Amino acid sequence: MGGAVSAGEDNDELIDNLKEAQYIRTELVEQAFRAIDRADYYLEEFKENAYKDLAWKHGNIHLSAPCIYSEVMEALDLQPGLSFLNLGSGTGYLSSMVGLILGPFGVNHGVELHSDVIEYAKQKLDFFIRTSDSFDKFDFCEPSFVTGNCLEISPDCSQYDRVYCGAGVQKEHEEYMKNLLKVGGILVMPLEEKLTKITRTGPSAWETKKILAVSFAPLIQPCHSESGKSRLVQLPPVAVRSLQDLARIAIRGTIKKVIHQETVSKNGNGLKNTPRFKRRRVRRRRMETIVFLDKEVFASRISNPSDDNSCEDLEEERREEEEKTPPQTKPDPPVNFLRQKVLSLPLPDPLKYYLLYYREK
């Protein structure tokens, strides 16, 4: 699946293309996509494909196409403090983006069939928390992953505000999926070759909306143990935050407000988005064009500009355009003001690093 939008040269350009094609339509979803670089979830040898609107699979590791994730994020209608269950959580890319919106008082759980993918997701999550400046720009709801078949979730598990399934759901499992939702909750899943949004409007009332045609691998059916019984999946308990952790969240929130107020006083108009560096695209002419007219074929050749008599004119036009366009330089790396402020506080170093979640930068 994918290929609906043009490839980007970096994560921001990919997001620009998704916005232009109306796959990303809200500011919250855009911020989450920009905050987490899709390439970070690829193996090193495949990163050149990270910004294409294509799905990627290597062994058990799988990422859906960016246009699919965009539609899923928009359909989930995420808000701070909600509970989210990701069935087939994979690399954790989607769960991490969701966590940026849910905030510190949300619930973010994932179920993944393959234990090696769980380990991969934990490594990527740890890398994001330790190294990404985006972690300090948001209040993050860290995802928790468990291994198991999502069709074997214990019947006494809690229900969720939002549920997403990343594999094709067979019609006979539709009711099972619906029962994972709280009243007022939203379920997004591939059902009968359509990405489908189901809203639970009452104890036994539902609204269904088909979003777009998709092609997903089907859910893997449970394998029963030798005793004939299924292996029930126990979801993580809803964690109660310690007083120490709540204090850290409150202190970081207060510091962010101070930084915002200082920025407003300095600039008079609040925080501004740092202008993104955009690479200049070079448009190339196609070498050949073939036009089909009914049963006849009309073929014409567009000469290569290097062989054309007008080559010098084209080169002159290009030079004039470059002279008119001011040179684009990459902006300085963004400053992590929260980190700077915490490190400047008259506090013992261990407390500073606790406030920073012991992050490397």
From TrEMBL:
Pfam families: PCMT. Keywords: Cytoplasm. GO terms for cellular component: cytoplasm. The keyword Lipid metabolism does not apply. It comes from the Eukaryota. Residues 309-320 have a biased composition (Acidic residues). It is found in: Cytoplasm. Its main location: cytoplasm. GO terms for molecular function: protein-L-isoaspartate (D-aspartate) O-methyltransferase activity. Residues 303-336 are annotated as: Disordered. Belongs to the methyltransferase superfamily. L-isoaspartyl/D-aspartyl protein methyltransferase family. PANTHER family: PROTEIN-L-ISOASPARTATE O-METHYLTRANSFERASE, PROTEIN-L-ISOASPARTATE O-METHYLTRANSFERASE DOMAIN-CONTAINING PROTEIN 2. This is Protein-L-isoaspartate (D-aspartate) O-methyltransferase domain containing 2. It comes from Macaca nemestrina. The lineage of its organism: Eukaryota, Metazoa, Chordata, Craniata, Vertebrata.
